[in-house]
Structures
1.
Amino acid sequence: MFAYLRLEVRRTLRDPGYVISAVAMPVLMFLLFTNVGGDDADAWKTQTMIGMAAYGALGAAMNTGTGVAEDKSVGWLRQLRVTPMTPREVVAGRALNGSVTVLPSIAAVFVAGGLVNGVRMDAWQWAAAALLLWLGSLPFTFLGLGNGYRLTAQSTGVVNIACNLGLSVLGGLWFPITQFPDWLRTVADYTPTHRFADLGVAVTEHEAPGLVTVTVLLCWLLAFGSYAVVSYRRAARTA
């Protein structure tokens, strides 16, 4: 399984689409939002940094599903079925691949925040925020995997982009949910992306993530994980 993981990580990191969408784009958006007509307050830049790091991690996590759909279309899934790996190991390897490839997205935005925008936090805050965002990205990896196993390669790309943009905007990764109407703010409170970003925001405020945040994310992890398993079983039967 770990040989399979190394192979998939190398393939992902060499993909120009991944570099542009999951690493370069969040950094550019972060610098744009905080330096062109934005608020110069340190708190605003720190919160925006967390939001854009979460956005990049979301895109990287879901990009794993696009790779799955492409592999399925060329028969790679059938080849994996005749290897000694069990279905659980195949899904776990892909999930670990998604977890590894979110790290460059988070790191790139954090580096831009510290070196370009002058964001200042204690060393433990940088480390804790990165760790929590890394762990919190797992539900989105499973969502991308579920789409990849269930849909065609072309459809997966479209659906993943729609999920990425929709969840990012609704979850307040681009704009604070305090600017939303009351009814939309209530909906946003229970989105996985809002609670995902809240993991990092809590650390910047010298607090631990709240119980509601952790509970909501665990519920979404269970839902998306179940979706990925069901989609894989369906794909295995029809591949």
Note: The two ends are 21 Å apart (CA to CA).
2.
Amino acid sequence: MLQSPDQILTIAQMRAAEQALIERGSSVEALMDIAGRGAAEWIWRISGGRAVTVLCGPGNNGGDGWVIAETIRARGGEVAVISPQEPVSVAAQSACAKYHGALVEPDARRGGEVFVDCLFGSGLTRALSAESADLIARLARHHHAAVAIDLPSGIESDSGAVLNPGLPHYDLTIALGAWNFAHWSMPATAMMGQRRLFGIGCAGVAGAARLLARPGLRRPAVDAHKYSRGLLGIVAGTMPGAALLAARAAMHGGAGYVKLLGETHAPPPELVVDERPLGQALDDRRWSAILVGPGLGRDDAARARLAAVLATNRPTVVDADALTLLSPADAPLAAAVLTPHEGELAALEQSFSLPGTGLRRDRALAVAKATGAVVLLKGADSLIAMPDGTLILAPAAPSWLSVAGSGDVLAGLLASRLAVHGEPLRAAEEALWLHGEAARIAGPAFTAGQLAEAAQGAIAAALE
């Protein structure tokens, strides 16, 4: 398999990928040299030849640091290494022996342009010592920029847990070989700054998680009409404003025809409203997709409306209130996308008798398997989980998305994309990317309505 720049590997998967390279004729030393030289390119650009301090640990992450330091020294840059412990791995010892630059004691008052953290990378599972944590914090304070190699020291790779309080925030994190889960999982991802990946030739790993990528959207066909582009129904409930907001986003999401099913107040003129009983409104073979949940309510009438939607067997987005009404009797939901936030995920776990323990991604996968649906778990580190174990992590979107109604906008975009082509996983990926891109376009301090309007620009940015 070819190398995948978007794959996200566990520590065990990364070690197996590196071992496969070694079995094909490489060596730990050769891989370290490739990784260190690649990372040094980034450090060189940032430092501009000014003072660089590399903190090297005893393992292979420290070995990467020795290679970085020697590469910069050989180019004529100003560099010094701090090594609180002697290298213990054979590859790190070899890299250390090839370094011919300055060494600085850990207690020296060293400052400069760039601090490079190579103390501990992936594989760390326990907190740093107080001395190590203090050293990292001091070096970060006395340099203009801080760069982490592989991962910031004090981060657990597979979970994204921060093992020490008070660790510094970095300006750049350079992943080596492949992404780790910590690169895209809270709380670790919030302290990494910009992230860059330098590949070392690892092959694609079957079943590996992957990073959400920009979708490639296409314009409607030249002979397209409103029904061929997708007829989307959005079910209104006790709070029709949420459904209206979802419809506003959906009309910018690509579907050719959006209808609001139920009573509402002051709809925009371009939105068709069908106030007939829901069963009658849904009795149309042309429906491409249905969205149920925003503002639905949680009473018996809401449950009946959800049941009517599920009975159509059309591709469906189940959002907000509707998520709390789902039960095992509704499964499998093979053509559905569920869009819970953390509280709604817990409600689904309770309804489907799931333990609700473990990592966030594992909980989402369990709900996907139990329901048979695609699960788009919302949050600062949103992800998509499939019943077959497929897992997609999204880069953090602008934090301005933490505004009332942004979830309704996401639901509308998702339902619109589902109406266009009817593929739940593809629609979830497209909508999650478009949602983040719309937030970037909208700028700071937007309203949910402004976010919905910005979806048009996000669609334009995704066109092939």
Note: The chain has a mean pLDDT of 96.
